[in-house]
């Protein structure tokens, strides 16, 4: 099992199956089905992003949904979607960033 | 057997004394011929009496056969015995369908934008988006948004044109 607690500034996490079903959760995201739905919606939305528009051909490793004070960091590993909510130093407005 | 016997008997004493086969009411015009006719009829029927049963049976069978061919037994339709070539044809057809079906029903999962990475902690705990990148994204998005706002449809000609129908 992953140790998501060691991630700096982590205030909550979600681990979901690829179909959006929550496998485990904790912190501020504990049993947060609403966020899980939004995240899986976001992931299915990113399927429409044209990869050929980017220089890298193989895809992305992380999706960050950045707000002023916190960010959701989304990662896919072992066919499970890992979502971590992290506190941020205030700057900028809400954006979805791909990195 | 008894019938045959009576027939013979009937034939032997035709035109003679009254028995159970002679008509009670005698035809006044042609007595003789009537008796003759009756007896011959009886005789012929007697002669046919033995094969008569099988005839009746075959007639019944024929009726049964005809009825059977005319009746569509819905329940028995499935139990239609397949000919060899028919069987092979179906095998080919089903295999073909199955092949195209399997090709169709297993659509490749739409590739997710995210790569499956082995150690998610590394990426999850990596530094969040830099301020520079965030500013770049913000300005790019606001520019795109502004461009979309300015998008206008220029009306040049009528979309609906009436045809000149004489």
Automatic annotation (TrEMBL), chain A:
Keywords: Lysosome. One of its GO terms (cellular component) is Ragulator complex. It is found in: Lysosome. One of its GO terms (molecular function) is guanyl-nucleotide exchange factor activity. GO terms for biological process: cellular response to amino acid stimulus; positive regulation of TOR signaling. The keyword Signal does not apply. Coiled coil: none annotated. Belongs to the LAMTOR4 family. This is Late endosomal/lysosomal adaptor and MAPK and MTOR activator 4. The lineage of its organism: Eukaryota, Metazoa, Ecdysozoa, Arthropoda, Hexapoda.
UniProtKB/TrEMBL annotation, chain B:
The lineage of its organism: Eukaryota, Metazoa, Ecdysozoa, Arthropoda, Hexapoda. InterPro entries: LAMTOR1/MEH1. GO terms for biological process: cellular response to amino acid stimulus; cholesterol homeostasis; endosomal transport; lysosome organization; positive regulation of MAPK cascade; positive regulation of TOR signaling; regulation of receptor recycling. This is Ragulator complex protein LAMTOR1. It is a lipid-anchor. GO terms for cellular component: late endosome membrane; lysosomal membrane; membrane raft; Ragulator complex. Belongs to the LAMTOR1 family. PANTHER family: RAGULATOR COMPLEX PROTEIN LAMTOR1. It comes from the Eukaryota.
């Amino acid at each position: 099992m992953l140790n998501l607690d060691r991630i700096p500034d982590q205030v909550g996490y979600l681990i979901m199956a690829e179909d959006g079903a929550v496998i485990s959760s904790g912190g501020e995201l504990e049993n947060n089905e609403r966020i899980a739905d939004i995240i899986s919606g976001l992931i299915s939305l990113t399927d429409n992003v044209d990869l050929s528009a980017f220089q890298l051909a193989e895809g992305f490793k992380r999706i960050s949904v950045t707000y002023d004070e916190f960010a959701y960091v989304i990662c896919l590993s072992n066919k499970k979607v890992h979502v971590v909510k992290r506190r941020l130093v205030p700057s900028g407005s809400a954006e979805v960033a791909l990195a | 057997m008894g019938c045959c016997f009576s027939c013979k008997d009937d034939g032997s004493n035709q035109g003679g004394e009254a028995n159970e086969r002679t008509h009670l009411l005698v035809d006044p015009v042609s007595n003789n011929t009537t008796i003759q006719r009756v007896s011959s009829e009886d005789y012929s029927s007697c002669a046919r009496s033995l094969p008569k049963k099988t005839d009746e049976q075959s007639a019944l069978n024929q009726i049964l056969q005809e009825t059977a061919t005319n009746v569509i037994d819905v329940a028995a339709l499935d139990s239609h015995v397949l000919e060899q070539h028919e069987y092979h044809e179906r095998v080919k057809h089903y295999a073909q369908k199955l092949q195209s079906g399997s090709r169709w029903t297993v659509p490749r999962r739409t590739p997710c934008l995210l790569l499956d990475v082995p150690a998610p902690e590394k990426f999850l705990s990596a530094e969040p988006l830099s301020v520079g990148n965030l500013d770049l994204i913000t300005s790019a998005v606001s520019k795109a948004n502004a461009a979309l706002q300015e998008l206008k449809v220029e009306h040049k000609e009528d979309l609906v044109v009436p045809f000149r129908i004489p």
